[in-house]
Amino acid sequence: MTTHVNLTNRQQQVLWATVRHYIATAEPVGSEALVKEYNLSVSSATIRSAMGNLEKAGLLYQPHVSAGRVPSDSGYRIYVDRLIQPATEVTIQIEQLFSDRLNWDKWSFEALLKGAAQILSTLSGYIVLMTMPLTHTTQLRHVQIVQVDARRVMLIVVTDTYETQSAMLDLPKAEDGSEWDADLLDRELQILSNFLNDQLRGRSLAELRVLDWSELGREFDRYSTILTSLLKDLSQQFAQSSLPTQLLISGVSEVLRQPEFSELEQVKTLLHLLEAEQHQLVPLIFDQLGSDASRRRVSIRIGSENPLEPIRTCTLISSTYHRGSVPVGSVGVLGPTRMLYEDTIALVKATADYLSEALS
Hints:
With 360 residues, the protein is an alpha+beta fold. It is built from twelve helices and ten strands. The chain has a five-stranded antiparallel sheet, sandwiched between helices. It has a three-stranded antiparallel sheet with strand order 4-5-6. Strands 1-2 form a two-stranded antiparallel ribbon.
């Protein structure tokens, strides 16, 4: 995506106004419309020049020779990353609706999810995708580190479902640069295995990502690099088996009223994805192992950034909800790239926060 483009203040204003006008009208935007609708305090010729420069940068394009311009995926990306803030008034609105219409003290969490999905799809006007929380998070039953040869060790993990996983790692040189003493290494690895069993037994694999290994004892500092690599590898191995499998979908009829979905074939491929290929969508909205969920609160995939062909003309905005610090489910909104991003980002984040609070 072309996010490194340097834009003047005027070009940023024109890009912002063009995107806003196109979102509102679904019609290609000309300079005259921007002069009438937005207080840019410049002439139509100046706006045309700025739009021409934005087109050269790949941020706008003309669908037809005689038409105005519309934003490209790169244009939307810069709009989202640089030119907007989530709409706080929409956050207040959905929080009030949740408070008025939902009751987490008396409802099951599934009923709460369905109610929140319906409210979110009504307010956004787009398709809402929610994963059920992980009802069973794989837990560690036994950990063992064994010496394979003079330079390698293997970490073996047995889960509470008696599934076994292993990871191999090369040992660093001993502190004095020599090879490790085999007998000493065996004894230390057994001590380390006992220590890890004491610290990790009963913990979920998802929790491994949020543990502060620096607090597990200075006597094992020398193993911190090994442990970090081994456990990261194991987390990746368990990623697919730890994904939620049930997806709640709401608001399909709402989004199909948008002009982007006027072609029957496009609608059919989208509906097929939503009905028969849900397993392909789940990793996109519940990316618990591919990123730091606490830092990246909201994920936004615009158009061609989506890997699945049926939604490459759509935007997918998602966020995880948590039980404590562990991500257990997700909230996603799917709509055309001509999306009211300020509102939708705020709605998704507020919904994820509400579900996290309900779980706590």
